[in-house]
Amino acid sequence: MFLIKNDKIQIKTNGGFIVYSFSILLLYFFSCAQKEEIKIVKPLAVVMSDDLLGTKPLAPSADQIERVAWCGVQYDQLTRKRFEDFKNCGLTINYNLYQNSEQLELVLKFSQELGIKTILHSEDTQPNHPKLAETIQKFKNHPALLGYSIMDEPQRNKNNFTGTIDEAIAHAKAVRALDPNKDHILYVTNNYIPLEDIEYLDAGLDRKILSFDYYPTWPYSIAPANYNNWFLATEIEANHAKKLGKKWWGFAVTAKHLSYPTATLSNLRAQVFVNLAYGAQGIEYFTYSVPKGTADYVNTPVNANGDTTEFYTQLKNINNEIKNLSFVFANATVEWTQHHNYQKDDPAVSITVTSKKTVILPTQIKKIQTSIPILLALLSKNDDNYLVVVNRDFEKNADTFIEVEPSVKRILKTGVAVNAEPHINIRPGDALIYTWKK
Fold this sequence. Notes:
There is one protein chain. The chain has three domains: 2-34, no CATH class; 66-329, TIM Barrel (Alpha-Beta Barrel); 333-437, Golgi alpha-mannosidase II (Immunoglobulin-like, Sandwich), CATH 2.60.40.1180. Helices cover 29% and strands 25% of the residues. The chain has ten helices and 20 strands. Helix 5 (165-178) links the parallel strand 7 and strand 8. Helix 8 runs parallel beside helix 9.
């Protein structure tokens, strides 16, 4: 006999009860009555944008987006092992304040051995230091030397934080007189300062590379003002660099410090892909290790002892994605960047310049529909066009429907082009890349 209890069937046997699902038995009885085989159709897996996180490219590009580490290998950890960790993280440029020429000699030695570059920055190369000429003369022909640190975030007027723009210009001229090699960059970073101050800086200083920092670590739901100004600041810098015909690098926060929260995969990706969509040719991470003399830098890729952490793996994966996709972004021309599917009162885009224009998609892209606002960028390089679709949100998936012509392919994080899926979820901060021939 059988009893029905809580949608279960208990069939009594000599040995007790065997419990079956009532629904399963009904399905069985029904199938027997119909005398037909029931086929179980498995649901298709949802296509997610980061399904190839950390994978290696099939054919690495010769052109690379630079990956710069602020507070790179620390001066009390100058061993080959620490530089191997640096290299294995996918970083290409080391930047840190060193104490003297002896340390610089070791840094450049290991940099050369492992195929990375170093920006010279030490107490001996500070403005008006008595050993400035001696130090530059010693290292100016070193093959691992990328250039010289001039000043971080100089301001137009005197301040307690850093030097002035005029002081930065004077120091740059002194360094250039000692080393006239134009291939060596004069490294100055400007933050979100008025455009006229950036123009004043570049009128007096011939920077080969423009460096720009703005930290949109907080999502819109927490700090809307910071998030909103992110696009305006990035657009100002990108347009300024384009006007001068110069390359520029942009920052991504990797360390929890001051009031900046811990870096997540989502906000790291958003910072990286927004910078790349606007044309950045380098991504600068703040920071790789714990700066000396600080106590509030935590959750860094490398801890105070120089050991790698879980955030090292996160940064390595991000760098791997950049390396795989460098053939798209390195030396590409940004035709336009525009925001899509935003509300008229969306402050994140209403303050920018190009965002006020109507989005005109290339004819190869027939339609784009997204559940939340996104950033679009059209890039061109050689015979190829690329449409970059960035989920600028740190917190939400962008449910995306995109209709394209058959000639349009989607580029995976391996660098391989595949047929474009009509429906895909873009994870927070992530990006899709589509390509077609001109």
